[in-house]
Give the backbone structure.
Amino acid sequence: MASGSKVWSVFSLGAALGAAAVTRKALEKSWQVATGKKPPENPADPDVEVWEAAMWAAVTGAFVALARMAAQRRAAHYYARSTGHLPAELQKDGQ
């Protein structure tokens, strides 16, 4: 079962990182279209307005977290279809 756990860990991590990268890239493009400028690279920079830094942090945090969650759920579904069971980390105690 340790082998299955390692496979799931790698699979889940890959899905989450891929989703986060794609989402962040899409958000950067959307930010540029909406505001006409690049998203703030360093929120601590005095040239970045507080509202802009806070908005960028809130938007990226929410959307990246949602994308990672969705990717991990899809990965769990694929894993369960492929192996016939959920990964041990996702199984309820009674299973």
